Amino acid sequence: MGIKKFNPTTASRRFMTGADFAEITKDKPQKSLLSPKKKTGGRNSYGRITVRHQGGGHKRMLRLIDFKRDIYDQPAKVIGIEYDPNRSARIALLEYPSKIKRYMLAPLDLNVGDVIISSNQKDIEIKNGNNLLIRHIPSGTLIHNIEINKGQGGQIVRTAGGSAQIMAKEGEHAHIKLPSGEVRLVSLDCHATIGQVGNVEHEAIVVGKAGRSRWLGIRPTVRGLAMNPVDHPHGGGEGKSGQGNPHPVTPWGVPTKGYKTRNKTKFSNKFIVKRRK
Predict the structure, then answer these.
(1) In a domain, 267, yes or no
(2) pLDDT at 133 over 80
């Protein structure tokens, strides 16, 4: 993909950039792989806002992505690369010999006409898009869409440009370095997809104006400093003043900005070899 710049016809357009969608080969999604997406506006089943700054945005349909890649030992042909409004990565439409169609995350350099495979077997080519057991992937290989629990489907490293690396194998676990810098133990019987997720330049896109965030369903975020004391612990003060609080907090008084909230007794702590910080 490439980055598209706009002519400065308005102040907001001057620095705005967007994707050129050069890699997209299919305009309309596969109808059989669509599902309606219901908006919540950040509200739970009681109608109370539990996630702020959500609401509005363009109507979308969910694309049913095959994160498990559980049709084994059948070569699948890539018949299209599509845009997915629900994620930063592009998606690839696969067709199996049995005429079954599935969506998967499109790795970097995957093209229409390529043939890929998902397998538990050992002697499968190490090729972008192939889904294999970590046991059969050489150390040093870049991977994505990694399972944490066997058979559960890929859960981590799925965003545009994301990739993890197999550092070493020890016993029944592999040491995998995640994009955050964290090194984590993952079972050798878990699956992962070879390569880096495509659409690498997504992070370089400049939104440019507030309205474009509203299209995405993101509502405005107001700084606590700009509020009144009744609305936020950082609010109030005469004129333009600092937060005053030496320990920054959320609107509900919970410490934030660097405050660690991970449970020290969490079950998965034993699988983390090196923290991201």
Answers:
(1) no
(2) yes
Give me the number of domains the chain comprises: 1
Closest CA to 188 of 136, 143, 134: 134
| Mean pLDDT over each residue of the chain, to the nearest integer | 95
- Residue 26's domain comprises 3-203
Four-CA torsion 70, 76, 142, 185, nearest 10 degrees: 10
Which pTM does this prediction carry? 0.91
In a domain, 223, yes or no: no
Query: At residue 90, what is the residue type?
Result: R
- pLDDT at residue 245, as a whole number: 87
CA angle 99, 198, 204 (to 5 degrees): 145
Buried b (16+ CB within 10 A) or exposed e, 171-180: eebbbbbbbe
Q: Give pLDDT tens digits for 50-93.
A: 999 999 999 999 999 999 999 999 999 999 999 999 999 999 99
Question: Residues 140-185: pLDDT tens digits?
Answer: 999 999 999 999 999 999 999 999 999 999 999 999 999 999 999 9
CATH number at residue 190: 2.40.50.140
75 in a domain, yes or no?
Answer: yes
Helices (H), the chain: 210-215
